[in-house]
Amino acid sequence: MSSSLDQAGVITKTVDDGILLLDAISGYDDRDATSQDRTGIYGDQSQRKELLNKDTDIAGKKFALPKQYLSEGLDDRIREMFLNIVQKLTDAGATVDEIDLPLLEYGIMTYYIICPAEVSTNMARFDGIRFGLQGETQDHESIQQYYQHIRAK
Q1: What is the end-to-end Cα distance of the chain in Å, rounded?
Q2: Could you read off the pLDDT of 87-122 as tens digits, one per residue?
């Protein structure tokens, strides 16, 4: 729909499941115009697992928590799980600082401006002139009739 806004993402219960899904969805696809051949950029599955299984000490590390992430409208169960993770980080010796990112409130509004504009641009290529089904324009009395004919087919 809107290629600059679309993202492939997964939600898994475990990091290992995330690794399996990353392996399934990553890589070059010659049928996807947005796909890139970035072989080896993330390593292979065993390399990723090795990195993830290292005992990483996060004591002394700093994390930023935008307060807007916990604003109204967030499901209480999600808020509780999120704050649980924050507590685990602090219990492990990390510092979690709440910060203010006031521009986040404009994210949805910006999306609703960009998305329809990009969708119309993306869909314009299926007008029967440059891409898609094409016909002979001289077979029609007007460009509107041509478009109606092509789009109806």
Answers
A1: 21
A2: 999 999 999 999 999 998 898 899 899 888 888 877
Distance CA 17, CA 68 (A): 29
pTM assigned to the model: 0.49
Same domain, 39 and 62: no
What are the backbone dihedrals phi and psi of residue 11, each rounded to the nearest 5 degrees, phi first?
Answer: -125, 125
Which segments of the chain does DSSP mark as H helices, in order?
15-25, 45-53, 76-91, 107-124, 143-152
Number of domains in the chain: 3
Burial class (CB in 10 A: 0-12, 13-18, 19+), 30: exposed
Judge whether 99 and 66 are in contact, CB under 8 Å: yes
